[in-house]
Specification:
Layout lengths: L2 H4 L5 E3 L9 H9 L4 E4 L3 H10 L6 H7 L4 H11 L23 H19 L6 E6 L6 H10 L4 E5 L6 H9 L4 E4 L2 E2 L8 E4 L1 H5 L10 E6 L2 H10 L6 E5 L32 H6 L4 E4 L5 H9 L4 E4 L1 H4 L8 H12 L5 E4 L9 E4 L8 H6 L11 E4 L5 E4 L5 H6 L13 H7 L39 H8 L6
Helix pairs in contact: 2-6, 3-6, 4-6, 6-7, 7-8
């Protein structure tokens, strides 16, 4: 790659963290600095519906919906979910339909509009690029979510937690207004089953929208082998890679050598999990390094190693603009200052089966007492798995749902042990906890990278507040001329 090829690429990519942790405010703040602000694309339909039920403080959701190119869709969403003045704290949120492979028109409308809203607000007031991060493991919402993001002019799509080789070609077709389909993972699939989800831009947009700009696609990988496969066998062009190491927050790729754990039950990563950056560089694509690169000298060393820059998540997770509640930020930064933050790589918490990094806080599901006390409920369903029933139809189950229900659907009891409801807990992290039928607010579960232990370095002594711009300036300080 030449300097001209990378001149317009960001040095810093802000990580796409959790459900609405990397929300439009954070992405907007980062992009305004000239670096790449990234939205988390997880559960945005639920986030939009709940923000409207909380009264849409500031009117941001309705302002963005006013700009949505299909007015009838925006009106239906506002009419269904908006509560003037907001719901009371002890009133449950309206339950939106759980997404399946046979999504209704109303389900798709909420997905498309929610992604449009988040990107529209992230891009508002500046002309710099904005990205959206999706998890390949959450497959069913992907097509309408991509389309909604593209309607708002998203510049980058980032995707990891799986092998997203179908996505580049899907972006090509969506940009042309063509119908798309994507094969989903279905356990026990036979020739009888139909493992595809489909989306028609023409049908959805009612001929109001034709062609759209095709965003750049960055694959999030944890090995040079996967990067090479995606570069050579994807359905369209992969424009670059984010190379993520095991110390990064959220979901981590499983170790290549399975079944080995340390004394506290964390999966062990070894030499086979190290990424050969020379092999990555040979692919001729720009790449960014992620996981443990939140120091100025690490940014500089990444550039010296051939990377275009770095992706940083945890440092932004606790800044003023992130979606975490103020109480979470205050607790973690205070504990960081007192050297009390403990980050645990939980091998079983996530229904996906991927290791999941968790901060141990007493008032969250990391506390075994709170975990055991919680009644298993599956009412959001983003991490459910598809399986084929004996009659050839597709069903859905989650290892975190009520155990009897999971077993009735053919699931294995061992897969339920230690599983946590990430869907509800991650939405609770941003102040939108559901109220269960028994009147209980869903508990939180905080995910962060290992760098959470040191985030207090960004806040002035005696304070727990710092800005996204401060993080950017700090990261780039060794590169100043």
């Amino acid at each position: 790659m030449t300097a001209a090829m990378t001149a317009d690429l960001p040095i810093i990519i802000q990580g796409g963290m959790g459900a609405a942790v990397s929300d439009w405010r954070l992405a907007n703040a980062v992009s305004r600095t000239g670096q790449l602000g990234v939205i988390s694309g997880t559960a945005l339909d639920a986030i939009l519906a709940r923000r409207l039920q909380l009264g849409d403080p500031g009117g941001h959701m309705r302002r963005a919906l006013d700009a949505f190119p299909i007015p009838d869709v925006a009106k239906r969403i506002v009419d269904k979910y908006f509560i003037d003045g907001g719901k009371s704290d002890d009133t449950p949120f309206i339950t939106k339909p759980m997404i399946s492979h046979k999504a209704s028109q109303l389900t798709n409308e909420l997905l498309v509009a929610a992604n449009f809203v988040e990107v529209f607000l992230a891009k508002e007031g500046h002309s710099n690029p904005v990205g959206v991060n999706f998890l390949e493991k959450i497959q069913v919402p992907t097509l309408p979510s991509l389309y909604g993001s593209m309607l708002a002019g998203v510049d980058y799509i980032l995707m990891g937690a799986g092998i997203p080789k179908a996505i580049p070609g899907i972006l090509d077709r969506l940009s042309q207004g063509s119908d798309v389909e994507m094969k989903i993972d279905v356990k026990g699939l036979t020739d009888k089953g139909d493992p595809y989800v489909r989306f028609s831009p023409k049908k959805f947009a009612q001929d109001l929208v034709a062609k759209l700009p095709r965003p750049k696609f960055l694959a999030i990988v944890s090995s040079h082998i996967l990067a090479k496969m995606l570069a050579t066998k994807s359905s369209g062009e992969v424009n670059g890679f984010v190379v993520e190491l095991p110390v990064a927050g959220g979901h981590n790729a499983p170790p290549r050598k399975k079944g080995e754990f340390n004394e506290i039950g964390e999966p062990i990563y070894g030499e086979r999990d190290e990424v050969d950056l020379d092999e990555i560089a040979k692919l001729g694509k720009p790449f960014w390094l992620a996981g443990g690169y939140a120091e100025p000298h690490q940014v500089k060393s990444a550039l010296e190693a051939g990377a275009v820059g770095v992706q940083v998540g945890t440092a932004f997770a606790y800044c003023n603009e992130s979606g975490f509640t103020r109480d979470i930020k205050d607790q973690v930064i205070t504990q960081s200052r007192d050297s009390e933050v403990k980050v645990y790589t939980d091998a079983v918490a996530s229904p996906t089966g991927f290791p999941f990094k968790v901060i141990e806080l007493e008032q969250t599901l990391s506390n075994p007492t709170l975990y055991e006390r919680r009644e298993r409920i599956c009412d959001l369903g983003y991490l459910r798995h598809a399986y084929e029933r004996p009659n050839g139809t597709i069903g859905w189950r989650c290892p975190s749902e009520p155990v009897d229900e999971y077993l009735d659907k053919g699931g294995d009891l061992s897969e339920t042990v230690g599983r946590k409801c990430l869907c509800n807990s991650l939405v609770a992290n941003v102040g939108m906890a559901q109220v269960t039928p028994k009147g209980v607010h869903e508990e939180m579960l905080i995910t962060s990278g290992d760098d959470a232990a040191h985030v207090a370095r960004f806040a002035p002594e005696g304070s727990t507040e710092y800005s996204a711009e401060h993080v950017i300036n700090y990261l780039l300080s060794d590169l100043a001329v």
